[in-house]
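Worked example 3 (structure in, sequence out).
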């Protein structure tokens, strides 16, 4: 028995390793055993008694010492001294795990028989463990799990053992992987796994167990693409490719055999016919469907060839046939009118290169083209390059519509204020004038325009395709002339005055009429010396043909009034009356006569035939008398005295 045990120890190729995502240092085969405890609702199924080493099953999620359960969650156990765990090791909320509250006495709490192993083959064993005791629970007396993983043959001889040491608590749930690698003796194809609780009972020593796995462990396989880097090569759909795949093999097998396998889009692995060497040429035809093609090399000792439990596999090499993007598209904003701008847009790629009529080129997912001419209508091609470096062609046809040729009969017009002119536009089927002020109909091709001021009218001409063109008419509005002769004037016979007229609405000429008694009658400023009342008319004549305008100034001509200051009413027929002959030339006046005491002796309105020196028919004595003469026509006011002598 001692000799046999020593032989098995010499055949062990790899030492047990601490927690790791891949305990085997070489290449792994597919799992021979993968104990996940299943999935479903709570509680999970009871395990066979032969597996649990005397532990008792409970359906609740908080078992006591020496009990276990199978569940997908454990929550609020023992006053929250345990972590709340709501998923298995893989994160599946329905996945089961084995929850163990270790017995107060050390011993086996899980064991299983592993069948189908190949003799003389190295395997990796691994399991995931979680210490459910919170780091803050149980104080200094907390007992932490301490496990031994032991691989035995059917006779109980230990093939390999590994101790986890104390599994420290954590502030949050933390899964840890433990395991070992071992080599079966030449005649051994079955092994027994035992997981032993080494820690004593007490507060703590509670754990979760999940995902127990056995896989073949072989030499290091190093896959690569000849002339390439990385484990993935991209091939664009529609392009043929020939890729050389290689797998390097470290020492470990005496007489290895090889078989390349292929998996399409995550499907099952199948053997590639005739591909039985370390190198393989993958020929991808131009018509290969888009998708993921994975290749791996299966390797085993010749003696074990054909047995999956003895086979290891290289890490897959991936050939990704990049399909035409589902959303690949090219569009344009047309139909577009000539003279405007259109937008070309594309999607489905990472970069875009455009080409089109007239040597058009541009880059980008959205590019403008224009101002457009009819020659720029046609097909625009875009090469869309995706993130894999594959280029795809797409096209869009841009329609360019002709625009109308807007025209007007006259682009400049002039008219006098208040006048109207008809505008004429042509070239389309619809018209829109602006501004609207002064137009009879903004939608007419021939509106009547009566602008108050100089205005630029623009017309938008639209054709049957909805395309537009514009034309404009500039109308200069000349103001009407307006003459200002000035206020009426009054002069005395023999005097002269200056007529200073003005006008607005330039350019104008000015002239006065009638022209008698005038100097410079053809100018705005003229000298006048009329002998009689005269109405002078100032006429302003527009040099732009906007007609004349006249204004009248009336000049009243009055005689100068000479008032006699002495008369002798003695009946001798000479100077018997105080008479003022000049008053006969005035229509409206008053004459008031006072004695030296201010007594009104005479009042006459607009008819004064003279005074004979009497008051109520009785002669007044000689003396000085005072007069006030007010002439409404001329605005004169005269005052003075007259001596009455008898």
């Amino acid at each position: 028995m001692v000799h046999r045990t020593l032989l098995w120890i010499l055949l062990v190729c790899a030492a047990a390793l601490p927690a790791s995502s891949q305990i085997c240092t070489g290449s792994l085969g597919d799992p021979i055993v993968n104990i996940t405890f299943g999935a479903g609702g709570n509680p999970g199924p009871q395990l066979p008694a032969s597996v649990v080493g005397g532990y008792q099953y409970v359906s609740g999620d908080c078992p006591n010492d020496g009990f276990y359960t199978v569940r997908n969650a454990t929550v609020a156990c023992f006053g929250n001294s345990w972590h709340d765990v709501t998923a298995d090791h893989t994160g599946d909320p329905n996945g089961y795990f084995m929850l163990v509250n270790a017995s107060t006495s050390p011993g086996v709490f899980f064991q299983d028989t592993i069948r189908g192993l190949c003799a003389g083959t190295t395997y990796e064993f691994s399991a995931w463990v979680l210490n459910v005791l919170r780091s803050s629970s149980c104080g200094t007396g907390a007992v932490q799990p301490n496990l031994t993983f032991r691989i035995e043959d059917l006779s109980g001889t230990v093939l390999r053992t590994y101790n986890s040491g104390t599994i420290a608590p954590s502030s949050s749930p933390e899964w840890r992987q433990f395991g070992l690698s071992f080599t079966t003796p030449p005649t051994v194809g079955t092994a027994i796994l035992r997981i032993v609780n080494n820690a004593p009972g007490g507060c703590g020593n509670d754990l979760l167990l999940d995902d127990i796995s056995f896989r073949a462990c072989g030499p290091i396989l190093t896959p690569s693409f000849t002339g390439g880097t990385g484990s993935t090569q991209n091939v664009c759909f529609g392009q043929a490719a020939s890729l050389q795949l290689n797998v390097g093999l470290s020492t470990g097998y005496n007489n290895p055999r090889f078989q390349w396998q292929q998996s399409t889009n995550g499907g099952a692995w199948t053997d590639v016919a005739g591909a039985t060497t370390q190198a393989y040429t993958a020929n991808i035809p131009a018509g290969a469907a888009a998708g993921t093609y994975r290749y791996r090399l299966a390797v085993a000792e010749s003696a074990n060839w054909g047995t999956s439990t003895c086979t290891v596999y290289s890490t897959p090499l991936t050939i990704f046939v990049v399909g035409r993007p589902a959303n690949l598209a090219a569009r344009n904003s047309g139909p577009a009118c000539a003279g405007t701008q259109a937008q070309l847009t594309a999607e489905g790629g990472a970069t875009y290169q455009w080409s089109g009529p007239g040597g058009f080129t541009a880059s980008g997912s959205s590019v403008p083209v224009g101002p457009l001419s009819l020659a720029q209508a046609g097909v625009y091609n875009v090469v869309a390059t995706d993130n894999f470096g594959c280029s795809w062609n797409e096209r869009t046809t841009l329609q360019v519509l002709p625009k109308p040729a807007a025209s007007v009969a006259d682009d400049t017009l002039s008219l006098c204020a208040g006048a109207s002119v008809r505008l004429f536009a042509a070239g389309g089927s619809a018209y829109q004038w602006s501004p609207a002020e002064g137009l009879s109909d903004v939608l007419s091709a021939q509106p009547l325009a009566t602008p108050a001021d100089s205005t630029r009218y623009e017309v938008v001409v639209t054709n049957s395709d909805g395309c537009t063109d514009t034309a404009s008419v500039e109308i200069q509005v000349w103001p009407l002339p307006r003459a200002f002769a000035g206020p009426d004037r009054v002069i005395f016979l023999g005097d002269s005055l200056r007529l200073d007229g003005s006008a607005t609405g330039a350019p104008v000429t000015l002239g006065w009429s009638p022209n008698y008694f005038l100097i410079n009658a053809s100018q705005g400023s003229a000298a006048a010396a009329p002998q009689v009342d005269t109405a002078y008319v100032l006429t302003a004549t527009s040099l732009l043909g906007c007609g004349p305008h006249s204004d009248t100034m009336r000049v009243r001509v009055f005689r100068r009034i000479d008032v006699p200051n002495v008369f002798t009413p003695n009946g001798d027929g000479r100077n018997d009356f105080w008479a003022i002959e000049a008053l006969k030339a005035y229509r409206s006046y008053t004459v008031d006569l006072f004695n030296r005491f201010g007594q009104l002796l005479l009042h006459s309105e607009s008819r004064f035939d003279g005074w004979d020196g009497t008051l109520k028919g009785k002669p007044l004595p000689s003396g000085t008398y005072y007069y006030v003469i007010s002439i409404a026509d001329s605005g004169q006011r005269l005052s003075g005295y007259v001596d009455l002598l008898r």
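Notes: The longest helix spans residues 2-11. Confidence is low (pLDDT under 50) at residues 1-21.
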